Structure formats: C-alpha cells, structure tokens
Amino acid sequence: MELVTIDDIRAAADRISGAVVRTPLLPCPWADADRPLWLKPENLQPIGAFKLRGAQNAIARLDERSRSRGVVAYSSGNHAQAVAYAARTFGIPAHIVMPDVTPQVKIDNTRGYGAEVVLVPIAERESAALELVEKLGAVLVPPFDHPDVIAGQGTIGLEIAEDLPGVELVLVPVSGGGLSSGIATAVKTLCPGARVVGVEPELAGDARESLRAGTLVDWPIERRARTIADGLRSQLSDLTFAHLRAYLDDIVTVSEDEIRTAMGVLATKGRLVAEPSGAVGLAAYLSRVGDLPRGRTVIVVSGGNVAPSLLADVLGA
Amino acid sequence: MELVTIDDIRAAADRISGAVVRTPLLPCPWADADRPLWLKPENLQPIGAFKLRGAQNAIARLDERSRSRGVVAYSSGNHAQAVAYAARTFGIPAHIVMPDVTPQVKIDNTRGYGAEVVLVPIAERESAALELVEKLGAVLVPPFDHPDVIAGQGTIGLEIAEDLPGVELVLVPVSGGGLSSGIATAVKTLCPGARVVGVEPELAGDARESLRAGTLVDWPIERRARTIADGLRSQLSDLTFAHLRAYLDDIVTVSEDEIRTAMGVLATKGRLVAEPSGAVGLAAYLSRVGDLPRGRTVIVVSGGNVAPSLLADVLGA
C-alpha cells in the first residue's frame, strides 16, 4: 500500500497556506521540569478543529472542472463543518449529509458556512451521500480514509518539526487515524529521534488493540460510543492502519475522568477550550507518566467544539 | 514629552522574539459579514497575558551589570507573573511585592516562576518596592509607565499590521494605557487608514473621561474597583495619556453584563478562555455596533487568568 510521503505533506502545506491558521506552539511553564510541554492548539482553526487542513487540501487537489460541481460529505461532527468551510473558500457548493438526530447547533453551524445540509436516518447517511455524488457529479470528501486528507492533517507535524526540531515526544489523539497518520509521517521523517504516541479513550481503544494484534480489530459502534470523546469513536481504515504501523511508536489509553480533568487544566492553565477528544493528549501527559518517554513534549489539542454545559461542568468539578 | 516610535517597537520585537509567543490572528467565521473579525489571543502567552512582552523588553534593555542585580516589581496581577517569568529567562532574581490580601493562587504562580514574593500591607507596596530597589541595587520594572514597556506591548500592533495590513479597526482594552499606547502607536503609524479604539468598563471609564476632558481625570480606586475586570482598574500616566492623545481614535465603554456575555462567546465560539479584562474588546464589538466603524476588525484578547468558578458561571448563564 502506498503511504503518504513528506513531499505530499509539504505540498499540502503550500496548498492550504492562508486558508488555515498556522498555529503556534504554546509553551507551558506549569509542566514538569523533565517533560517541558508545548500545546499545538488546533482548536483555534476557524471551524474549531484540525479537520479543516485535510478538507482544504483534498478540495484544493481536485481539478477545477470536478471541483466546480461541488463536494459531498457525510458527518455530524467537525468534518462536516470543515468541508462546508473549505468549500466556501473555493466558492463551490457543499452538500453535507447528516443523521436526522444531529443536534440543531451542528446543523446550524454547517449551514452557517453556506452548505446544503441533507438530513437522513442515520443508517442511510452513506448511501444518501453516494446518491448525491452520483446525481450531482460532485466529489465525496472522506473524513480520514484518503491520502490527501492524511497529507493535509500531516501539515501539523510539519509545523511541529519546523518550530521545535528537538521535539522528543508528540501525543496525538487517534480515531479514524487521519490526524495521527499524517502527524506521525511528518514527525518521524523529519525528527527521527522523536517518538509519536497516539492516545485513545479506554472506552474506544480499538486502534490500540488493532496495533497490538497486528490486524484491524472491530469494536461495534455501541461499544465505542460509550466515551465522552465523541470525536474519537471512528475506527481505522486499511490506509490509516498502514501508516500507524509504519510510523506510530505506541498508543496509550485514558479514562473518562482523566479526559475531564485534562479539559479543566487546558482551560485554566492553557486558557484553551478543548472538546473531550482534544484533551486526551494532555490526559495522557498528566496521568500516564510511567508509560511515556520524558523530554520535550508536544500535545496536539485537536478541537474545541464542546457544549458550554460540559465545559462549565468540568470547571466546577 | 518624547513618545515611543515605530523604531523602538521594531527593536523591541527583535529583542523579545523567541521569549514570547508570536500569536496568530484568528479569523472568526461567526462575525458579521460587514465587520470581518480576527482575534489576537494574547491570553496564550506563557503567563496568560500580554504583559510578558513589555516586561521582557524592559529587562532586555537593561545593561548587563544592572540586570545581574535583579528586578523588582509591585503588582498582584499579570504584571507580577510577567516580571517573574521574564527574569527567569535571563537567569536573574526577581522580587515581587504583593499586597498581603493577594489570593494565594497568584502568589503561588509568581513563586512558581522562581520569584521572591514579599507580602506587605496594601498601602505599603510602593514604598516596600522602592526600599528593595535601594537595598539590592535592583531595577524597578513598572507595569505601564515606561517607554520600554510601551514599546514591548506595541509589538502586538506590529504583528497585527504585518499579518493584516488592510486592518480597519483595532479594539484594545485600556487600563494604565501601556497596551493601548503601544498598539495605537504601531497601528496608526503602519496602517494610517485604520482606527484604533480603546475599550473600558463603564465602571472604570476614567481614561475615556480624561481623553474627552483633555486632561487626566482622577477616579478614586474605590470607584474603579467596582468592575469585574480586575485588570482594568489602573489609571493613565502622563506618558500613556500623551500617547493616547496622539494616536488613539476613541474610547468606548461596556457594561459588566456585556463583559460577561463576551467571555462566554470567546469560550464557545472562539475556544479561548479570557479574563473579564480580556473580553472587553469583544463586548464592544457585540454591543456597540453603532459607535464603531465597520470593516476588518481585530480584537486584542489581552489575558486569560480567570477564576474557574467565574468562567463556569458565564458559561452556565
């Protein structure tokens, strides 16, 4: 299987420059002295999550004729908003298929970026999306299972390597594996001495189990859906699994309580609003000291789209 | 009176580069179409506030021999942490005089950066600081009333002009006037078409009154202390007043409720934790539409050191 290369990631960086925020590394003076810490705040992208990088790159890669017919995506989460927002920067139509149980605020946000939202029963979202692709001649933008999406997310790793060449550990959330594949590819290529470790909720620890088993392990959705980290309920694809086997050093898991605590620390000490999925890296840093190498550490805060009530709740705890 | 120049600010930028975060401009897709909005998140500096820029520049400007004897500051707020943190980057001692009523968390934070904290009755803090200066041969770093501090804060304006040369409006909090003086100097010099407007709480609207009157107006501290924005209770000095008269276009004021609402919007839509003082710019943007010019707007989010309970409170409201 052909893997994404550092050249693909460099090309993606040129392509998406100006359309995404080049996030800084934020030093954390409150970190342990022997594990100096920087946060990579991808929650500060305009849509509140890293997903914009992959969507922007995937759409930029289309030839102009295909692109003009628009794009389709199915998602109830950050990918929906990423595709809608990216499509608007190209002035092309976006059709987003969402389950009819999607919270109204996410529907409104996606429509707010100018997308056409199509609500369908949850079991029909894939088929509805493929129907739209067929009918409109539009292109489907997948959330993680595509080289252009992986290369786009990989630009985060490129920026880490540029800003902190002596990085020793990068902690990155793992769900479908687009983000972790891209970042691991970039960081391990540019900083071979660094370790890249994925982080999953214990309650959705399927990627960890797959990597240990050496083969993709299936956890039914009801099992993965138990975690509060709603962005980390997807499973690896063959493509992302191949990247993680090639480049990822390890995966650790964190508990739901550890995730909530980390959200609170990010808010009070990092002044960042993170969604649960965006806080798993810090949860591992705070709670899995024994399982992680020491040294200069970067944590990818992947997103910040969280219900105000949940944020208030972790602050009050 | 000699004012800080753009050359002073450029020199400050070179001097503090690497020691402070070069914060990005964050585009806000949720803003009004005719008032496109970017946030300048100075709450993401390592100490959680812009104050680091001025302190770092002021200490860098000292000759090595004076500097080696250390620095002194009196403050219970962000300036204390800024001087402590900056001194540590130079490996020199910092002595911070704080009122003995200062909340323990602020004392701990300042000590955490390696500073010696001296607690005194509130009325004695200035004299205690001057005594330390005398005794140690150390240098006093003032919170705003100094050209080097103003030039350091002005680097924010330089970065705004670099990143968005077509900026039309900059909203900046006003307290002692160091931040607003520096930013107004940089922005009005580099982008003469832009307007720079200060924002104050109504309950601490002394700078607005001073600018209208054309002379420094004194509000007793009990009157200024009513606002929730604890970082905006200082008054202008002759030096900062002169800068604001030369460069600031206007000052608007916002209510306490408007500040709280803006804190909530920054958290939920901007994914940023702001202290009340850091939210006044957005409060003006949201609530003073009629008083502000339209067009490309930058809001300086000056700091994010807020009690978790207050943040939880504005989120639950």
Descriptive report:
Two copies of one chain form a homodimer. Chain A has 317 residues and is α/β, with parallel strands linked by helices. Chain A has two domains: 6-47 and 146-316, 3-Layer(aba) Sandwich (Rossmann fold), CATH 3.40.50; 52-140, Rossmann fold. Helices cover 46% and strands 15% of the residues of chain A. Chain A has 14 helices and ten strands. A six-stranded mixed beta sheet of chain A has the order 1-2-10-7-8-9, sandwiched between helices. In chain A, strands 5-4-3-6 form a four-stranded parallel beta sheet, sandwiched between helices.
Top keywords for this entry?
homodimer; 317 residues; alpha/beta; Rossmann fold; 2 domains; 6-stranded mixed sheet; 10 strands; 15% strand; globular; threonine racemase activity (chains A, B); L-serine ammonia-lyase activity (chains A, B)
The rough form of chain A would be described as: globular
Q: What name does CATH use for the topology of the largest domain in chain A?
A: Rossmann fold
Summarize the helix and strand pattern of chain A as letters.
HEEHHEHEHEHEHEHEHHHEHHEH
Biggest interface, CB < 8 A: A-B, 34 and 34 residues
